[in-house]
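Hi U.,

Before I forget, here's the chain from the pilot set. I'm dumping it here mostly so it's searchable later in email.
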Amino acid sequence: MEVLRWVASARCLLIITAIITLASIPCEGFSPSLYGVPNYYNGHHRSPTLVVNLAGGSSSSLSSVPSLSADMEMNQNTIQSTQVQLDSGVCAEVMYGLPSMDEDLTSSKNKNSNKSPLVFIHGSFHAAWCWAEHYMPYFMNRGYFVAALSLRGTGGTFAGEGIKKVKIAEHVQDIEALLKYISCQEGFVKTGNNENDKKNNKPIIIAHSFGGLGVMKYLEKDPTVATQTLGGIILMCSVPPSGNGKMTMRFLKRSLVDSWKITAGLAMKKCIQNESLARELFFGGRNNANDDNNNVDDAMSLGISDEDVRRYQTYFKRDTVATIDLMDLSKQLPSAIITDESSGCAPFVSHLPPCAIFGATDDFIVDMEGVKETAAYFGLSEPIMIDSPHDVMLGAKWENGASAILQWIEHNVETD
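Structure:
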């Protein structure tokens, strides 16, 4: 019996050790030889690569770079891919789309719409491609300019030869540079004397999962910049300010099996090969998506087809070479700046534009306590919950999140 108890304890210790490695979910990277997997853009047109210079200096220097809106008439209803040379030396992938040209968007007035540009930031195992599947076309069709950044170390943004670790400060630098660039794009930012128009046209940043931590660190760097730069902040299924340490310990108390799935799937990258695990972690639903009796209801219960799971796994592989520097991150988690532990509120919330924190009812990775922690950090009493798995932008339920974002923007940000 003593031996059996020792074996059981040893197994638990191994599981706990592995789970603690998830103190922060890794944000992964790229090898140039892996780039160019078929169907990466899901049928969307890809433009010839355009390299522009994102200097970190004044807005006047930024405004002189080529404009994303230069080919507005020609590029309607397509998603473009652009390589943006950052002043740090990395060449970042930016996917973007212009408002669809329909009967409501044909006038010169609407080409310079009051609608705020939407800037999307992805999470771990993902890149800009995850927004191009559904969300970017959805908002383009509703008159929005959209842009999605592939963070440094992912498929479209090579971190450097031999680099295996990416610091959170580098992600912040990339986010900041992109926002400066978007704010200077002719046709999407008001240049007249009407202060309300200028306010309306500030970008709204929308971040998912680990991307939420990058946004928190961006806000922490200089909170007043958020008021000047952003029209709104939306985090979806975000890793909470305390990272994943507390959250994974909660999972451990609830279910050793689920804790192991998260550890194996993310920290050990088993979700790249294991279809069932990838589905459970990111997409929800059950397996056997090719049942003969498929109908609309079945599609919703399936969450995502087996074919799409396999396709996304090829992207996961490409986007998981370099990882976030966990030692560096552990020393500067956003929760470290909280001065009022009872409220859990960040000290800079008074400087922020309208904010929304979205959680998913079927999220396998971020629990309800984590979602509420993020909401409290932004000074909100409650998060907004949507019927979705963790990957709110993919799968059969993607429109639940997209429509919730649209409704929130229309009610809380001054747009037309």
